[in-house]
Design brief:
three-stranded antiparallel β-sheet; 12 helices; globular; binds 2'-deoxycytidine-5'-monophosphate
Length: about 290
């Protein structure tokens, strides 16, 4: 737990909650002695803050508040095959942070749906399944219901299927808490499409990592071949374009560069250079926005 003082925004919030309750408390509780009313209002304010993770100790005599530690997040969003997975993992490793590959969750949801014969566009059923998926990350391996599916979810078909289920609002909602649960001590580096916009809007550092479609196709083709899968670059370019189109134009949590995200174009730079830039930006992130 750390202590800090109410900043201007919190003070405004405190006063608006206080005066909202100032009006509401007498109506809700009838005739109450003035002393009791003040006690009640003050504690209502306390609990209003409590529900928002900000806990003033005493709003009348003392402005010090207790705020739970919120572990810092580095959110890396970008299009498919931009290299964000490799870069994010290396940044996490360098900082000793946890790592979340959020795309793998959509890939797993799609794989489970295909295996159970559920149509990929059946939002309600895929969402229900996603909520209860037995997923385990064991080192480099990803287990679905105890079975190693690390390679199965990495095919182009699995990526396309993931992109279809990822456009469904109830599926996204079902995976929200799962993703947020990765925010643990001492911090998290995550990659995806909506890390900075929806999952961790308070991330200490937001990156939009991209590269030209040709560079991405080349990297993806190489990756697939290394895994013993067949890949033709022209086909990969076409598939990336289809996926980009779907990820950018969907109504829920579309992929887009946020105004507060650093742009990192990796077309002409190596993964090591990208990692160095992110570490440098992070080192310059003001402590107050790091959340600890
Ligand atoms: O990052 P990836 O290629 O493994 O992601 C697979 C698909 O999942 C991608 O086409 C879009 C979707 N996705 C998403 O919508 N939101 C995320 N945070 C991560 C992935």
């Amino acid at each position: 737990m750390t202590h800090r003082h109410l900043d201007c925004k919190q003070f405004q919030k405190a006063t608006s909650i206080f005066f909202g309750i100032y009006e509401a408390v007498p109506r809700g509780f009838g005739n109450i002695k003035p002393g009791c009313r003040l006690w009640l209002r003050t504690h209502c304010v306390y609990f209003s803050f409590f529900s928002n993770d900000v806990k003033p100790m005493n709003l009348i005599s003392n402005t010090a508040v207790t705020k739970p530690v919120i572990w810092p997040v580095i959110a890396i969003d970008g299009p498919t095959a931009s290299g964000k997975g490799t870069v994010a993992q290396r940044v996490a490793h360098a900082l000793g942070f946890h790592y979340l590959d959020s795309g793998s969750l959509y890939r797993l949801a799609a794989l489970a749906a295909v295996r159970q014969g559920v149509p990929l566009t059946d939002d309600k059923t895929v969402a229900e399944m996603s909520r209860h998926l037995d997923i385990r990350f064991v080192g480099e391996k990803i287990l679905l219901a105890g079975q190693d599916v690390s390679d199965d979810i990495r095919s182009e078909a699995a990526g396309q299927n993931a992109s279809i289920v990822a456009a469904l609002p109830q599926v996204r909602e079902a995976l929200l808490d799962r993703q947020r649960a990765f925010r643990e001590s001492p911090g998290l580096v995550c990659d995806g499409r909506d890390m900075g916009s929806v999952i961790f809007p308070d991330a200490a550092l937001k990156i939009f990592l991209t590269a030209s479609v040709e560079a991405r196709a080349e990297r993806r083709t190489k990756q697939l071949k290394q895994k013993g899968m067949s890949a033709i670059i022209d086909d990969v370019v076409k598939e990336l374009r289809i996926r980009d189109e779907r990820d950018i134009n969907r109504p829920v949590a579309p992929l887009k560069r946020l105004h507060d995200a650093q742009l990192l174009d990796t077309t002409e730079i190596s993964a090591d250079e990208a990692v160095a830039s992110i570490l440098d930006w992070y080192s310059k992130t003001p402590k107050s926005s790091v959340g600890v």
